[in-house]
């Protein structure tokens, strides 16, 4: 199972929009997808469950050890996508686990015991450094980072790389990889062109070729709890997320050209 976390230590970078639409794209290719909502804002849960309150147990119980990952998995309204949901009590985990043994290893341990099989696990994260984020970094094999035009997203990337280094050094996840950075909320302006040129010069091949445009269709899709492929399948946003999904799946620990178990090409178009 590929484990890919979408992480950015700054708010408003499109993490949830990216997780939801990459999940929808992969499911449209026939892959079985599990989303872990590790963001206390629970925005991915809201979209994937079409605004309905998640049932318990959820992510908070998984991290506290009160429920198994299998017990917390629920189907979503997106065909082929399952979810371990976030709900309000997840915000208390940082406090309740602070003095507990193995607090950084709770998610990794819970997922190791999971009996269900998926092709890809995508993790949504909050915008701050926290015990939740550390659990994500100690479990996921790959990290991809959305960055919108502006200096603060780049500064957050520097801190994230330091945090990933600490996880590799002090926790179990020695193979944790920064698989790529991708640009979001891009517009046809001089500011965006200059930003893109600068970050590509600075980070080189770490920056994915695909850029995600700023379009109102993303907000409309989120408000209607739909993917961009359902809401506006011919839009520049849908085209961008198909291309982005291809790139993400071709990087990190997935450089092989086919899913060995299911013989699925990584560049299949989304349904």
Number of helices: 12
Number of DSSP E strands: 8
Mean pLDDT score: 90
Order of helices and strands: EHEHHHEEHHEHEHEHEHHH
Overall structural class, as computed from helix and strand content, comes to alpha/beta
From the structure above, extract its key features.
Rossmann fold, 271 residues, 12 helices, eight-stranded mixed beta sheet, single chain, alpha/beta
In brief:
With 271 residues, the chain is of the alpha/beta class. 41% of the residues lie in helices and 17% in strands. It has one domain (2-254): P-loop containing nucleotide triphosphate hydrolases (Rossmann fold).
Mind explaining what this structure looks like?
This protein has 271 residues and is of the alpha/beta class. The chain has a single domain, classed as Rossmann fold, CATH 3.40.50. Helices cover 41% and strands 17% of the residues. The protein has 12 helices and 8 strands. Strands 3-4-2-5-1-6-7-8 form an 8-stranded mixed sheet, with helices on both faces. Helix 1 crosses helix 12 and helix 6 runs parallel beside helix 7. The radius of gyration is 17 Å and the shape is globular. It starts with a strand and ends in a 21-residue tail after the last helix. The C terminus is likely disordered.
SSE layout:
Elements: E1 2-6, H1 15-28, E2 33-38, H2 43-48, H3 59-64, H4 69-72, E3 73-75, E4 81-84, H5 93-96, H6 106-112, E5 120-125, H7 131-139, E6 142-147, H8 151-170, E7 177-186, H9 190-203, E8 207-213, H10 216-223, H11 228-231, H12 236-250
């Amino acid at each position: 199972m590929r484990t890919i976390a979408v992480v950015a230590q700054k708010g408003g970078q499109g993490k949830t929009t990216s997780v939801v639409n990459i999940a929808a794209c992969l499911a449209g290719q026939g892959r079985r997808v599990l989303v872990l909502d590790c963001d206390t804002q629970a925005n991915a849960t809201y979209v994937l469950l079409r605004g309905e309150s998640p049932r318990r147990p959820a992510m908070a119980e998984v991290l506290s050890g009160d429920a198994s990952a299998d017990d917390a998995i629920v189907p979503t309204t997106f065909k082929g996508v399952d979810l371990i949901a976030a709900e309000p009590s997840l915000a208390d985990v940082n406090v309740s686990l602070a003095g507990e043994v193995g607090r950084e290893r709770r998610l990794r341990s819970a997922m190791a015991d999971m009996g269900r099989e998926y092709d890809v696990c995508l993790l949504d994260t909050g915008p701050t450094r926290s015990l939740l984020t550390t659990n994500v970094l100690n479990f996921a094999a790959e990290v991809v980072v959305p960055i919108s035009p502006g200096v603060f997203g780049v500064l957050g990337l520097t801190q994230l790389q330091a945090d990933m280094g600490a996880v590799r050094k002090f926790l179990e996840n020695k193979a944790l990889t920064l698989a790529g950075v991708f640009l979001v909320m891009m517009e046809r302006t001089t500011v965006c062109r200059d930003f893109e040129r600068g970050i590509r010069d600075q980070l080189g091949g770490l920056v994915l070729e695909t850029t995600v445009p700023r379009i109102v269709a993303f907000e409309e899709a989120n408000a209607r709890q739909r993917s961009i492929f359902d809401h506006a399948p011919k839009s520049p946003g849908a085209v961008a997320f198909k291309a982005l999904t291809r790139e993400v799946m071709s990087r990190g620990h997935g450089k092989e050209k086919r899913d060995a178990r299911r013989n699925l090409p990584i560049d299949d178009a989304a349904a």
